[in-house]
Amino acid sequence: MANDVADRVAQEIADWLDLRSTQVAGAILESVYRPRVVEPTRAKAAEYYARVLLNPDGSLNEAGKQQIIQQTGAQGYEAVAKTVAAWLTDQRDEAFAAARAEAMAGLEGVG
User: Fold this and answer.
1) Same domain? 86 vs 100
2) What phi-psi label fits residue 78: left (phi over 0), alpha (psi between -120 and 50 degrees) or beta?
3) Burial class (CB in 10 A: 0-12, 13-18, 19+), 93
4) I want to staple 44 with a disulfide (CB 3.0 to 4.6 A). Which of 2, 40, 63, 86 is the partner?
């Protein structure tokens, strides 16, 4: 009988803790203190995937490719690869534009 009482008390405490923790979690999620999820920008996502997908010399990292395929599937990998390629093109265009502006600024000072 003492065992039955102890089991009932333990079960009541476990039920109360479960209910209370659910109530507290719900209250937090509905308050100003709720966790915020920040979606990365397309550029940040491309930069992240470029580090996974490419070796430092710019060649394809086969292990990284397989990792992305496992995580996203073949179609997901295709989308990631296109995003990274577009991001790399943008990076090159920005570098070229900056170098050209610098060169033009240098030319203006001559004469």
Assistant:
1) yes
2) alpha
3) exposed
4) 40
